[in-house]
Amino acid sequence: xxxxxxxxxxxxxxxxxxxxxxxxxxxxxxxxxxxxTVGEARRWIDAGRRGARAAPWARAGVExxxxxxxxxxxxxxxxxxxxxxxxxxxxxxxxxxxDAGIPRAEASSWLIARxxxxxxVRAEAARNGDRPE
Length: 133
Prior knowledge:
The structure is a single chain. It contains seven helices and no strands. The chain has 133 residues and is mostly helical. 25% of the residues are buried.
């Protein structure tokens, strides 16, 4: 814990996904040097991001609320922007991969290869000599 607040996580089953880079006292006006308007800065601060970490995501055109989730999947801003431009909702994408049982550390590799969660499960099963359920 830092500053008296507890790191936020996505849920009980993902406690290793902490977003402890949020400072509730951070001033949106300090972000203007990074090219943010005060309104844009507020959205990123509310999503739990700091200016230096938010800037690449914002420059890539990824919305603050979506960036946090794309980051959980291990994607870089440019990869996330490609998915967002195609209309992919980060929350639905994250749920699809995790519900399929794909480890968080592996999801980005499959996503970059443009593989579906179902195809990834089948490929892993075939590689391990198992039958997918």
